[in-house]
Amino acid sequence: MTSRELVKATLEFRNTDGRVPRDLWTLLWPHLFEKEELDAIMEKYVWDIGEPEVVYAKQSPVKKGVWERAGEYVDDWGCIFANVQDGIIGEVKQPIVPAEDEDWEDISAIHIPEELLTFDVDVVNESCRKSDKFMLAGAFPRPFEQLQFIRGTENLYVDLMMRPEGLMRFMEQMHDFYCRLLTKWAETEVDGLRFFDDWGTQNSLLINPTLWRELFKPMYKDYIDIAHAHGKKIFMHSDGYILDILPDLVEMGLDAVNCQIFCMGTEKLAPFKGKIAFWGEICRQHILPYGTTEDVENAVRSVYETLWDNGGCIAQCEYGIGAKPENVDAVYDAWVRIHGK
After folding, report:
1. Quick one: which of 280, 289, 285 has its CA closest to 316?
2. 51 — phi, psi (to 5°)?
3. Which of 234, 298, 289, 293 is nearest to 266 (CA)?
4. pLDDT beyond 90 at 88
5. Distance of alpha carbon 45 from its chain centroid, rounded?
6. Residue 332 contacts residue 19 (beta carbons within 8 Å)
């Protein structure tokens, strides 16, 4: 099977004789400071998930800087991040909608990044045709996180309880933009769409699950429906403990979730075996930075024995600051030996 066929078979729980697909996420850190080790890992294995080339007709008038570089970075929406060190992601210190604007009366400083809709479809399609990898769209809707960047986390939590009309109008505007963006990507030859939002603390959801179901679940359902209406798969990423909303994600038809499995424990995820694919990951809090290669193998074995069902698992981990290169390599070596391919 090609990588594209392998990933699709795995997502559909019909991978009866192929290997486990591989995906490696890298932050800027190893590219800057452990390039030799990273290059060795990248050359050792076949990787199955890719992204197409993207060319935009229009460039953002507000975006500047580099996401993981020291200094100031401004995102596509105009949010300003301060970063003190290369290789990691900074923080927003001054929200665009300040705390004193309790009703979201002035959103003039928020830039809706319509430029992201100007990507060249022909370039994307040609890039997909040239690759046998499973290609994911170059769009990253993240409504909850983007609202935090715009408003500040503490202020947003209050807003979500009080629901000022200005916030609700803006959320509709943001959601409309994300739906239009995902629809355009769904009309290309990519294999899948994706969206990101970090929802968990170490042991609970960041907001009440009822509130999540009222405000954010309908957005995600629209994203999933857009993908499936166009014959595409759809993936979601969330950090933290998200056990409370996993049944909802399954119910909505999400194809794959990238989550911190070891925050929740593989035993608690066992009921979802065969219902949703787990797009990684292996613990980057403890095992990748501090564990032994034996710890890595035990972690992979736990995921495989609990969640593999003729598919349902993608061998994925994140190589970021602190991760031992030998442990990152051991993740993929363990998947080969445990699965037998």
Report:
1. 280
2. -130, 145
3. 298
4. no
5. 22
6. no
d(CA 205, CA 183): 29
Give per-residue pLDDT as tens, 153-199: 999 999 999 999 999 999 999 999 999 999 999 999 999 999 999 99
Going along the chain from its start, the domains and CATH numbers come out as 3-61+114-339 (3.20.20.210)
User: CB neighbours (10 Å) of residue 78?
Assistant: 18
Helix (H) or strand (E) holding 296: helix 293-307
8 Å CB contact between 238 and 216: no
Task: Please report which confidence band the pLDDT of residue 87 belongs to, taking 50, 70 and 90 as the band edges.
Answer: confident
Report the Cα–Cα distance between both ends of the chain, in Å, rounded. 13
Q: What is the pLDDT of residues 277-327, one digit of tens each?
A: 999 999 999 999 999 999 999 999 999 999 999 999 999 999 999 999 999
Question: Region 53-80: what's the mean pLDDT?
Answer: 95
In angstroms, what is the C-alpha Rg of the chain?
20
Distance CA 235, CA 111 (A): 26
Q: How far apart are alpha carbons 41 and 44 in whole angstroms?
A: 5
Residue 135 structure tokens: 């290609």
- To which residue do tokens 């679940």 refer? 217
Q: Quick check: 302 and 337 in contact, CB under 8 A?
A: no
- Which position has the token pair 């990152």? 328
Cα–Cα distance, 165 to 305 (Å, whole number):
48
Q: What gap in Å lies between CA 52 and CA 120, rounded to an integer?
A: 11
DSSP sequence for 44-67 = HS---EE-----BSS--SS-BS-T
Residue pointed to by tokens 């992204």: 51
Amino acid identity at 64: K
Structure tokens at 86: 């290369």
Strands (E), 101-196: 134-135, 192-196
For the question of whether the overall pTM of this predicted structure is more than 0.90, the answer is yes
From the list 178, 89, 68, 182, the residue with the least C-alpha distance to 136 is 182
Only one residue has tokens 């030859």, namely 189
